[in-house]
Amino acid sequence: MTDIFATTEAEVIDAVSGARDWKSPLNIVGARTKRQFGRPVANWGTVLDVSGLKGIVDYKPNELIITVKPGTPVAEITAALAEKNQRLGFDPPDLGPLFGAAANTGTIGGAISCDLSGPAAMRYGRARDHLLAIRAVNGRAEAFKAGGKVVKNVTGFDIPKLFCGAFGTLGVLTEVTLRVFPEAGEESVWEISDLTPEPGLRLLRTVWSSPLEPTGLVYIPGETRRASAAFGNPGHGVSIVRFKGASLPLEEKRNAFTGLLEAAHIHMAMEIPNTEEEFESLQTLAALNKPDIDVWRIIVPPASAAALMLELKPPLWTADWAGGLLWLGMKDSTAAVHDIAARYEAHATLVRAGEATRNAVAPFPPLTPERLALTKSVKAAFDPLGLFNPGRMYPDV
User: Fold this and answer.
1) In terms of DSSP H, where are the helices of 40-171?
2) What is the largest CA-CA distance in the chain?
3) What is the pLDDT of residue 267?
4) Model pTM?
5) In angstroms, rounded to a whole number, what is the distance separating the alpha carbons of residues 10 and 21?
6) Is residue 353 over pLDDT 60?
């Protein structure tokens, strides 16, 4: 079979049907901005390019939902929502530049498949919290839909959530429905400087547990600041706190926040203007984008973040979600990262590394026998012949 470029769901069904006949694996790709994310697999079979499945299918601003095809660039969705003063709550980061791709070319299907969420997710929720419904094609060449285009409690199995972070191993997405949020009118961003990791992250956790509803809680250590001019003058670590809201409520948040700082005896804080460049650098991981650096993502209980970093000692790192999401830049990665993370009940993923490292170090945490059996069972239910991205996450899956 030759490589296939699909622009409709019917063409995806035909491609899967042909793959079944030939028993040929399908390497599902979109804009290809994250193709090197995951295990390298030598025998990809046929490339199924779904970047042609793009466009907004339905957008109901009054109901706060949007339905799009998976090949739609996140930037296009963001622009359409901005016209109605709305936004994607999970704030997907743009990892394209990390893999040598152009900025703002990543697709919504890629963001969901890689389970990518940015700073505002700690306020509004992660990708899986906003994926209301999907249409997809399974390994039997059958189109199916799951979920519903309303915000409600789910009874039964919430199938759309399975596709978040599945890296295309369960099926080919052909349509996704997302919940969206009103965009707040104004923004207030604060920098609290000269903080080492432990007090810097502790302050962010305090703000997170307050009723102030921040939309960004980031810590940048001094080493990372010195590696990137985007983060201002070099020095010790800095905690960044972002609030959004209408004018009057935002002023109340400012007053409450300064009171919180005074109670904590913190005086090195200032409200900063023109923060767009700074948060854009965070979204693209600009400070970690070095040719000799492997990039890791670690989800960890926030209270354990500082201790975990002290043990791993990465040369470069940033903390999002008040420490709950860590991005690490490391040299000479080994499987010990998974072992150390596990001791802190953390989940480590090798996001970017050379092929030799990705062959030697599992990108995803090792599964217990019980979880591996469950993973294989779910895979077999959606893709009984193992056609979709085989081995992308785990061998023989």
Assistant:
1) 74-83, 108-113, 121-124, 127-130, 159-163
2) 69
3) 81
4) 0.93
5) 17
6) yes
Secondary structure letter of residue 397 according to DSSP: -
Q: Which of 295, 264, 305 is nearest to 358 (CA)?
A: 295
How far is the first Cα of the chain from the last one, in angstroms, to the nearest whole number?
A: 22
Pairing outcome for strands 238-245 and 186-192: antiparallel
pLDDT, mean of residues 376-394: 94
* For residue 229, pLDDT beyond 60: no
Edge-to-edge, what's the strand order for the sheet holding 46-49?
A: 4-5, 46-49, 26-29
Q: State the amino acid at position 14 in one-letter form.
A: D
Residue type at position 124: Y
Confidence class of residue 107 from pLDDT cuts 50, 70 and 90?
Answer: very high
Coil vs helix vs strand at 142: coil
Rounded to whole angstroms, the Cα distance separating 216 from 214 reads 6
How do residues 117-173 score in pLDDT, each as one tens digit?
999 999 999 999 999 999 999 999 999 999 987 655 555 578 999 999 999 999 999
- Bridge partners, residue 317, by sequence: 328
What counts of helices (H) and strands (E) characterise the chain? 14, 18
Q: Give the distance from CA 134 to its chain's centroid.
A: 18
Neighbour count for residue 63 (Cβ, 10 Å): 13
